[in-house]
């Protein structure tokens, strides 16, 4: 009789524990484990935060592609190279880089830069419309827009005669530099932002822009 009572108590305990074990073993929306002896991850309906942290991105990356690059070797009146220039175009703007190629060839200070309407750099030459000769006047007039700032900011040359300029602008289009007359980049001997078209001073260096 004692054995029957004990067995009844054990059966009652098993019946009580079994549902609790089943409730704690599974939770709503929990995926089934695919490997024996493993505990499946709990699905909460939210993205995995660790996956977001690894990517560090909340949307597609915006890449600005360069569509055209122009280059120029900028030389002085004596024909020696003073600087190099590149103009990189994207769909929205252009990036202009000018870098001196040797120390002491340009005087320290600010030097105006201009993109001109003719791709011809000749010392002691006259402009397309004629007139008195001057260095690199063959490069023509500056391209639009006119104004104290012009399409480019001045190049600053340090005390050791070296300088680098990187600037972006949407003041001109690729077509303006690649028309029939091409174009050039001109360096002036000084900077004068009070001039109506920022061309005060003498042209001391010039380079024809080309895609080659």
UniProtKB/TrEMBL annotation:
Keywords: Signal
Highest taxon of the lineage: Bacteria
Location of the region described as Disordered in the Swiss-Prot/TrEMBL record: 30-62
GO MF term set: metal ion binding
Boundaries of every Superoxide dismutase copper/zinc binding domain copy: 85-208
Signal peptide positions on this chain: 1-23
Gene Ontology process terms (BP): superoxide metabolic process
Family, similarity comment: Belongs to the Cu-Zn superoxide dismutase family.
Name of this protein: Superoxide dismutase [Cu-Zn]
């Amino acid at each position: 009789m004692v054995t029957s009572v004990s067995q009844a108590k054990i059966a009652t305990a098993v019946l009580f524990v079994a549902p609790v074990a089943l409730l704690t073993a599974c939770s709503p929306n929990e995926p089934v484990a695919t490997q024996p002896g493993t505990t499946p991850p709990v699905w909460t309906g939210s993205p995995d935060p660790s996956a977001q942290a690894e990517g560090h991105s909340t949307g597609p990356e915006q890449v600005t592609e360069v569509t055209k690059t122009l280059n120029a070797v900028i030389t002085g009146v004596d024909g020696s190279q003073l600087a190099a220039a590149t103009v990189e175009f994207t769909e929205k703007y252009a990036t202009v880089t000018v870098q001196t190629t040797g120390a002491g060839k340009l005087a320290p200070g600010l030097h105006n830069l201009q993109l001109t309407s003719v791709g011809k750099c000749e010392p002691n030459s006259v402009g397309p419309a004629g007139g008195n000769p001057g260095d690199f006047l063959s490069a023509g007039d500056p391209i639009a827009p006119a104004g104290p700032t012009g399409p480019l900011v001045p190049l600053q040359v340090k005390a050791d005669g070296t300088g680098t300029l990187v600037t972006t602008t949407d003041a001109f289009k690729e077509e303006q530099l690649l028309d029939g007359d091409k174009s050039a980049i001109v360096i002036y001997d000084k900077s004068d932002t009070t001039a109506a078209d920022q061309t005060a001073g003498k042209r001391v260096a010039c380079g024809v822009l080309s895609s080659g």
